[in-house]
Amino acid sequence: MSTQKCQQETVSFRHDVWKKQPMIFLTEPDIKYQDSFLVGLREFHQEGRMLQYDFQIISEDFERFLYHLKTQQDRTKLPPYIVPQSHFWLIDDNEFIGILSLRRELNDTFIRIGGHIGYQVRPSKCRRGYGKELLRRGLQKAKELGFTRVLLTCDEDNIASKKIIESNGGQFENMIRVEGSPIKKLRYWIDLGDQPPVEKGH
Ligand SMILES: CC(C)(COP(=O)(O)OP(=O)(O)OC[C@H]1O[C@@H](n2cnc3c(N)ncnc32)[C@H](O)[C@@H]1OP(=O)(O)O)[C@@H](O)C(=O)NCCC(=O)NCCS
Questions:
Q1: Domain 18-147, what fold?
Q2: N or C, which end of the chain has less CB nearby within 10 Å?
Q3: What is the CB-side half-sphere exposure of residue 180 using CA atoms within 13 A?
């Protein structure tokens, strides 16, 4: 992902994500959050992100969209050149906050750029600590699914993502050039043996 474009204005208070933990959880995409997801999708589109998701088509048949997301994790339903991935949504107070995608396997591209985990926080919810929390919970999910370590990458100028990865235990491996781009990629590994468990019931 190129330079992150979340809202740049400073939020006057820091949302204390951790005090609200009982309301926050990671879930598989669910029709319960359709309205909130669609509002979030509009926000992403206004920033030129997630354009692969057509708002009209998705809003007309949300269940079909959910089915599409589910098939993306099933190797048997994908062509060989597509990497299977599972999508999870961060929900707070019944509201869609962001997306985390966990790639079950890596191809030559993802081993260099992209890694096992990608994440995005919807623009109106940025700079409140959700990004760190999203990855923290995503790492826990990866551990539950049997991963022992995961690769994360981000653009060298993506300060927020760099902070999110490093605060979640990212061990810097190297910085690589990306063909056709002046921006280099930072590559990190996170050993999941070191992840503290997410509290029960959340
Ligand atoms: C990167 C992204 C997930 C950050 O989400 P977020 O909810 O704003 O992250 P957090 O609130 O947890 O902030 C993490 C840190 O980054 C800082 N930060 C957040 N946005 C920032 C910005 N635009 N510029 C500078 N610093 C920023 C925060 O202040 C915080 O710093 P701290 O550790 O010193 O307190 C979000 O901006 C996004 O979705 N970007 C587009 C997609 C993307 O880049 N994904 C990562 C793929 S590698």
A1: Aminopeptidase (3.40.630)
A2: C
A3: 1
Among the atoms of ligand 1, which is closest to the Cα of residue 128? Answer: 11
Gap between the Cα atoms of 109 and 90, Å rounded: 27
- Would you mind telling me the total number of residues written for the chain in this entry? 202
Q: Which of 66, 75, 119 is nearest to 97 (CA)?
A: 119
- Ligand 1, residue 3: give the atom nearest the CA: 44
Query: Does ligand 1 come within 6 angstroms of the Cβ of 121?
Result: yes
Considering only CA atoms, which residue is closest to atom 41 of ligand 1?
4
What are the domain boundaries of the chain? 18-147
pLDDT of residue 193: 87
The predicted model scores a pTM of: 0.89
Q: Is 154 in the pocket of ligand 1 (CB under 6 A)?
A: yes
